[in-house]
Amino acid sequence: MANTITYRELLKNREYVKLLFTNLVDRFGDSVDAIAFTWLTYQLTKSAAWSALIYGLNVLPNIVAQPFFGALVEKMDKKKVIIVTHLIRGVVISAFAVLYLTGKVNPYLLAAFTLLITTIESLNLPASTAFTPSVIEIDQLSTAMSLSSSISKAVALAGTGIAGIIIAQLGMHAAMLIDAATFFIAALGTFYIHTLAELNRQHKTSKSDNLQDNVIEKPHTNKAQQLHTKNNKKSLQTSKAQPVKESYISLLKGGAKYVIQNKIILNYCLVAVLLNFLLVPLNSLLAPLVNDTYQLGSELLSVISIASSAGSIIGSIFVPKLMKHFNARHILIIFGFVIGVFTYAISLGNLINSHIFVCYILADGCTFMISMAAAIICGMLSIEFVTSVDQAYLARAASIFNASATAAMPISSFIVSGLVIHYSASFMIKVSGIMAILLFTTILISKLEFEIKKEESTNAA
Q1: What is this structure's pTM?
Q2: Least C-beta-crowded within 10 Å: which of 150, 242, 391, 412?
Q3: Residues 6+ apart with CB under 8 A from 98
Q4: How far is C-alpha 113 from the chain's CA centre?
């Protein structure tokens, strides 16, 4: 994919800077929210079962509701949807903070609020995905999305660390109120973002005004002529202001049909589902891997977390550069193999657990490579998805894509939780690495395509 703009040039785009700022504020709030609610769940329940339930409720709306919300959002002003959902989430979290301060929060109320907040987020996500291309020129999207992704990961890393300090020093309610404030700030920032269409209208209006100022005043017309002209204009405006309205059911069916008939998008969904499915064992079993296989403590777990964040940031930065030299299929296969090989390698800690320094090198090096490769694949898929999908279907297609990808996580978690009773964490991770290698070998020898030709995208119905 051609890309002719640098990060420095991109940051001269005021509207993109506004969009980047609001996304970063939102991401910071999400990172604080994740730590606060995770800790609160444990503090309230002391139960692994409740933790699993809250986790399930946190992803359930993204699986169930988001495909339907995508069709709903398609009929609406994306900018307004983003602003309203930010404001609602800010109000809901503020209300929850008040209930917490008054001692009225219990596990059932926590579950209800978790479900409500994530449901609102499921309405926000397809609108945000469809809004980005309305602010950034299509040939600048890969650079813009890459920069936003890499900085967002850095902000999330900072937010995760700061959240712990906030909770320890100021209390849980302070973390919640800061989280709520980020949504209000993001809503305000979004309000001041101008889309490309808005900027074009402003430019045309300004150009028209300047032209009128330079035109010699025309002879005065009589009232009958003025009234006739006014009525003609009004009639013309009325006829133009009556677009054909498509029903919600029609939009929903149209979105599903568009995705089903587009093999490239189905391939994106398939890879996202399988990749998330295969990464769950490593993500969910890191603690037992560190403790049982490497026979080390939380220090290694902390360093692994840092290596993971660093890999994600580096991977996101390199996405546009890689897309200049490789097509989507090549990127997917190369870095898919990287994920498989290093997932298998990280499970071999039992072979070197007598050498602490070597353990740190193996665990951190593998984590860095896995996170970097995953960030590159996810970034590439996101860019290809946004730039390939017809914008008339983008919100609906994005909601189906996100829902299908997210669905793999609770399913895989359930399978892993059942199997880990009989098999060690290292064995489960080793198997997921082998499966990843087999998956991308299959893609290599298959004829699956991951790029839409420009003329196909233009003629999409």
Answers
A1: 0.62
A2: 242
A3: none
A4: 21
Name residue 162's amino acid.
I
* Cα–Cα distance for residue pair 131/257, rounded to 1 Å: 22
Q: Per residue in 134-151, pLDDT tens?
A: 888 877 777 787 778 778
Q: Model confidence over 12-40: pLDDT tens digits?
A: 888 889 999 998 998 888 878 776 776 77
Q: What is the pLDDT of residues 202-255, one digit of tens each?
A: 777 766 666 565 554 444 444 444 444 444 444 444 444 444 456 666 766 777
pLDDT given for residue 213 in this prediction = 59
Q: Which residue has the higher pLDDT, 241 or 382?
A: 382
pLDDT at 285 over 50: yes
Burial 211-242 (b: 16+ CB within 10 A, else e): eeeeeeeeeeeeeeeeeeeeeeeeeeeeeeee
Name the one residue in this structure whose structure tokens are 């979290």.
Answer: 93
pLDDT at 379 over 80: yes
